[in-house]
Design goal:
Strand order of the largest sheet: 15-16-17-18-19-20-21-22
Number of helices: 0
CATH topology of the largest domain: Jelly Rolls
Number of domains: 2
Helix content: under 10%
Mean pLDDT: 86
Shape: elongated
CATH superfamily of the largest domain: Galactose-binding domain-like
Largest sheet: 8 strands, antiparallel, barrel
CATH architecture of the largest domain: Sandwich
Order of helices and strands: EEEEEEEEEEEEEEEEEEEEEE
Number of strands: 22
């Protein structure tokens, strides 16, 4: 099962890898229909401190066999950051693959884009930079059941040099979610075991913000465009004319006789150094060429994150007047 990793914006130790492309072109209440909860507040902000149990969150896990491993998720007064209780996650990761999490379902308006920020306190004893587990946190339209449904973030360490006991760290991740006719969104919080050892973590003081994004604020990229291809030296090799049709948040990039890709226009919530534009087109791989997204620099300029050919530089889109 292919696992998804979205390098979303995080206030905790963001990815500092260097993007292999130098881009020189680069110069809000929620109308929720409700949350699946006993007494859900109709608001754009939700808080959970687990003082009355799981407060509507459900327990889930995957890759917990071959061999079977011990794990548990419960509400405990053993440790807490806000109030008397927190959620404890225990994973004896002897199969080197376990993933456990809590999840919660929200009902939202169909055919809409939302910016979702998930913040919480994460209690960890993991120190240093080696043999750390990974954080599971994100929002998706799919009910997370397998590894391929999960969204992985940074590591579980508090990054102090020495073993100092439990340290509460602030975690915050922002992502953009496109809601289809299902009208449902799932938010997940948990850990992925990446080392054969037993570890215990705690989650407390969860804050979730769900903000609708207006299409009026998004760039209008419909029209005729020219794609310029470059070799690895940065020399232009050839061009291709395409037509882009934008229907709400869906984008179709059409060649002369074929659709090159169908993607989704989204607000860019990628972590540095991938936050190079306010909007991106996602899920647009140009027939399996492997690009992850296209940076929408503005309404007249775009650039792919990866090349569209072997031994090439990323391709540049220029709108034709």
């Amino acid at each position: 099962m292919k696992e998804k990793y979205y390098p979303q914006k995080s206030t905790h130790k963001p990815n500092t890898a260097i993007l292999g492309v130098l881009v020189t072109l680069l110069s809000f209440g929620v109308m929720l229909s409700g949350c699946i909860d006993n007494n859900p507040p109709i608001t754009d902000s939700f808080q959970y401190s687990f003082e009355s149990g799981f407060e509507g969150w459900k327990i889930d896990g995957t890759d917990l066999s071959d061999p079977d491993i011990n794990w548990s998720i419960d509400v405990t007064d053993e440790e807490s950051y806000d109030g008397l209780y927190s959620v404890r996650l225990y994973l004896d990761n002897m199969n080197d693959a376990g993933k456990i999490w809590i999840e919660k379902q929200f009902n939202v308006t169909a055919q809409a884009h939302y910016e979702v920020t998930i913040s919480y306190m994460f209690g960890t004893r993991d120190y240093g930079d080696f043999n750390l587990f990974r954080i599971i946190t994100g929002a998706t339209t799919d009910d997370p059941e397998t590894a391929g449904d999960l969204i992985f973030q940074d590591d579980t360490g508090h990054h102090l040099d020495n073993e100092t006991g439990l340290v509460w760290t602030t975690r915050s991740y922002t992502t953009t979610v496109h809601i289809d006719e299902s009208r449902t969104m799932y938010i997940m919080l948990g850990v992925w075991g990446t080392w054969e050892t037993a570890r215990t973590y705690y989650i407390d003081a969860v804050n979730i913000s769900i903000i609708p994004l207006s299409l009026e604020d998004a760039p209008d990229i419909s029209g005729n465009w020219m794609i310029t291809y470059y070799d690895w030296m940065g020399n232009s090799t050839h061009t291709q004319n395409v037509t882009i049709v934008q229907s709400n948040w869906t984008v179709h990039i059409n060649g002369v006789n074929e659709t090159l890709c169908t993607g989704t226009l989204m607000k860019n919530t990628l972590a540095p150094p991938f936050d190079q534009s306010e909007y991106i087109i996602s899920d647009c791989d140009f027939g399996g060429l492997g690009i992850s997204h296209i940076y929408v620099v503005n309404e007249t300029s775009m650039i792919t994150d990866l090349p569209l050919c072997e031994s090439c530089n990323p391709a540049i889109f220029t709108k034709i007047p």
